[in-house]
Amino acid sequence: MRNSSVGLVAILCIFGSLYAHSSVNDELRRLHKCYGLFTNEKLQESHALWQQVAAGQTSGTDACMAILSEADFILDGKSIARQGSQYQLTGQKILRKFLDFYNSQFSVTASGIPSTGDDARTADVIDGNQPAYHYLYSLFKPNEPFSNTVTRSYALRAIRYSEKANRQRSVTDTNKNNLLYSPDNIGDKAACMAYFAANGLNYSDFMNAYMRMGSLSSVEITPGGVRCWFPGGDVPAVPYFPTLIQTGVLVGLEQDTIQNVATYASNTGRLPADMNINQHFGGGVLGEQDYIRRNFNYADTTTQNGRQTLQRRYGESVLHDFLCKQNPSVRSMDVVSEVNVNSTISFRQGISCMRCHSGMDDLTGVTRNITFGKTLPNSWGSIRWLSQSVQSTNPTNKNQKVLTLMTGNDGNWHNKANIGRLFYRSYNGDLVKQQFEGFQELGQAIAQKDDFYACFAKKHFQQFTGIEVNLDDEGDINFPELSAAERKYRDQVIQLGQELKQHQSLKQLIRSIIQSQTFIRPDRGL
């Protein structure tokens, strides 16, 4: 009997040892994988955290989160820590990796912006990474709620580091050929150029921009540059030196308080007299200059009319980028009241068309009063930005609230209140039909939706496990039959989304994914 007891103890010890060894291996596997995903590099076994996990002193999950925290914005809440005179190297790599990830999650990426005349000069003033910055800020700024990504009332500006001197161009850099331009009463190119040359200024390039011969009446030095005054009292050409974005390695983010004010532009009939090129329209990412512009599918001279001519790519992208909804986002039964067989608008006459148009078109109404400003009438050398039109700020127009048209024509639709509507089916089959006004209200509405949090849980889940989850409306007739594993992963992501809505922490979301068995064994289910 005694021998049997000894044998049982020995067997239990062996199994305990094997289990402990297996557990340590799992934690090391967890650490090895997360380090590669965070930095795009291989973790060496000599690393202190590897040694601690191997010795059972800490878990792989805790080690992963310690690494992730090296990118936290702890210096004045704006940037990562320094090592001597340089910023923390691992933190730089992590910021770069997550910036690339968040940039990749948009339907229309910066590299895929339609050709609307934007060039390097626009990119010097308006940062194409700004939409992604909102997610970085919520991830790495301590105690920053995730919902702020769609409710912030301001843009974010990069803090970048370089060992090179003067990494940020001066606002008085005379080699920066920017010009605010008017097509009216254009004056003497030669005279203005002569003044520039006499003062050591190099403006020969942009002064070739369609300038008619005349006589220069006076020249005035202003804080924004040099004004050339011409007969008639107009200001046809104003060299303009906006504060430019920083260059170098990304090391932090801060609120964008830059006021790059343009006081004169080519389409002043549509734009206010004074415009901040860096204007943010509210709603976090939703109201970013770059996010709106990249999702405009018509040229900068287009006026939206509430029917065929709409910047509907914006509405389609919002549904996809923030709610993981593909067109059509509603069921056939949902759009019966949206159809008018007698409408003068062709797509309004059929259910199949309205399944797509009802979701994206009404949402696009939030952009109706946004128009382009530009510093030159041609695309070369032009800075392009967005502003609210003069007419749309008129109190009379702002009080008129009209969604997209059911029939007929409204030539003043683009000047009315920028109301829109969220219209889609949730992943659980609930119908969402909610009207809003302006980008800020749109963001606040999205921040209340379960789909918003499930969508970003899905994005991060795929980033860390490689598994794509279907979050479509399960009650739709076209919803595919899911396998047992697909069902488990869908339920897991929905649960992660519900938790994210409660704790509002992207870092906690990442932790939950890393400590799950799916992270280290995605081929074995939960």
How would you summarize the topology of this molecule?
Elements: H1 2-39, H2 48-54, H3 60-68, E1 82-83, E2 86-87, H4 89-103, H5 120-125, H6 130-140, E3 156-161, E4 179-181, H7 189-198, E5 218-222, E6 225-229, E7 237-239, E8 249-255, E9 261-262, E10 275-276, H8 289-294, H9 312-323, H10 351-364, E11 370-374, E12 384-388, H11 395-398, E13 419-425, E14 431-437, H12 438-446, H13 450-465, H14 484-503, H15 506-514, H16 517-520
Antiparallel strand pairs: 1-2, 3-8, 4-7, 5-6, 9-10, 11-12, 13-14
Helix pairs in contact: 1-3, 4-6, 9-10, 13-14, 13-15, 14-15
In a few lines, what is going on in this structure?
The protein is α+β, with helices and mostly antiparallel strands. The chain has 16 helices and 14 strands.
Overview of the structural elements:
The protein is an alpha+beta fold and 526 residues long. The protein folds into 3 domains: 98-168 and 244-446, no CATH class; 179-239, no CATH class; 450-524, no CATH class. Helices cover 36% and strands 12% of the residues. It contains 16 helices and 14 strands. The protein has a two-stranded antiparallel sheet. A two-stranded antiparallel sheet has the order 3-8. α1 (2-39) packs parallel to α3 (60-68). The longest helix is centred in the N-terminal third of the chain and has 38 residues, at 2-39. The chain is flat.
